[in-house]
Amino acid sequence: MPPVFTPEEWTALGRRLALSPREAAIVRLLCDGHKNFSAAKELGISPETLRTHLKRLYEKLDVSDRFELLCLLVRTLRGASPAEVSPEKGMPASGNT
């Protein structure tokens, strides 16, 4: 499966969303289709530690699951600032689609 985003897009996402290197690595693995266990193994951490990272990442980005996270990533790349994306299913805060 080809990567979801190019290296340049990942760099832009990390910068625009203020992701730490660890957060960026977790997001990239999730977008590449990893489940929690395989992502944790890839990072050399326990699944419980990964869950803790995910919980904090979701809180930081105001999303509740992987779907909302992906919507946020796509909308951010399309030019919406994180503040312009509401937590309700990653839709624009203005309600426009």
Structure description:
This protein has 97 residues and is mostly helical. It has five helices and no strands. The protein is globular. The C terminus is likely disordered.
Structural class of the secondary elements? mainly alpha
Poorly predicted regions are: 89-97
Largest sheet: none
Give me the number of helical elements: 5
Share in helix: 55-70%
Strand content: under 5%
Mean pLDDT: 85
In sequence order, what are the helices and strands, one letter per element?
HHHHH
How big is the Rg? 13 Å
Secondary structure: number of strands:
0
List the quaternary state of the chains: single chain
Q: What is the straight-line distance between the termini? A: 28 Å
Shape: globular
Task: Using brief descriptors, characterize the structure shown.
97 residues, 5 helices
Itemize the secondary structure elements and their pairings:
Blueprint: H1 7-16, H2 21-31, H3 36-43, H4 47-61, H5 66-77
Helix pairs in contact: 2-3, 3-4
Short summary of the structure?
The chain has 97 residues and is mainly α. It contains five helices and no strands.
